[in-house]
Prior knowledge:
Rossmann fold, elongated, Rossmann-like_a/b/a_fold
Amino acid sequence: MARPITAGIDGTEESLAALAWAAREAVRRDLPLRVVHAWRFQSYESIGVGDRDTQHGWVRDAMTEAMRTVIERHPELRVSVDVVEGHATRTLLDAADGSEMLVLGSHGHGPVVGFLLGSVGQQVIAESTRPVVLVRAGDKPAAEADGRDVVVGQYGAPEDSAATLRFAFETAAARGAMVRAVRAWTLPPVFAYSPGSLKLLDEAGGLEPYEKKALADALQPWRERFPDVRVSEHVEMGSAGQVLLSVAGRAQLMVVGRRAHRTAVGARIGSVAHGVLHHADCPVAVVPHD
């Protein structure tokens, strides 16, 4: 059975943009769409506002209204709606486990404002076993049809970014888009050099040719698997986040890998994903390692 694309919505403008994005992606991939809303009963006995069943009915009505436009635009789409009473983080993580991807709304730019900095978004992105796509309220569907690229960050050995590249190529294939694969590199500290690493660099002709070869090697199996997908390779010296954002202007989607770090105050994702989520104008997919 095909796994659905799941959209988590809460009635905000951002989550409705995420719902619209998820519906379009489900149509492109010929997958069902699942819409999930987590809620908790709030007792307002002192002012006589609704018992549990009444409040649940209000939520269902709001969900039905949110789905109306989606169904009108995509009558062929298979849609299911789940209203789950429970904690938002756990509900979304459970929903993501059985999904092709989870799509959520994201707030705007800035060091303070941002979906990522909310406790729910932070935990979901850091702990999800499936890709999580963040969509801003101002997302424009036209960006998906005007020749913009699917930009993906590649790093390390081929196996380190295999899941990220797979997601990027699958998305590009469904959209008829080009994949722009980006690899950033920096000069290693002197103590990182070893006879073995120096030999590899000499054989490759230097640092930059070595990095270009590393990117080409990582892309090769995906080029073979998706021969119809056009690929552009971009290798540049600099921090990964800055290099990715430098090519974001022509991106319809940014795809980055996720390395989650456990700290005393909970899970935190890596700095590259953090920076791209806060500053890219387009939707961003955060893909966990296999």
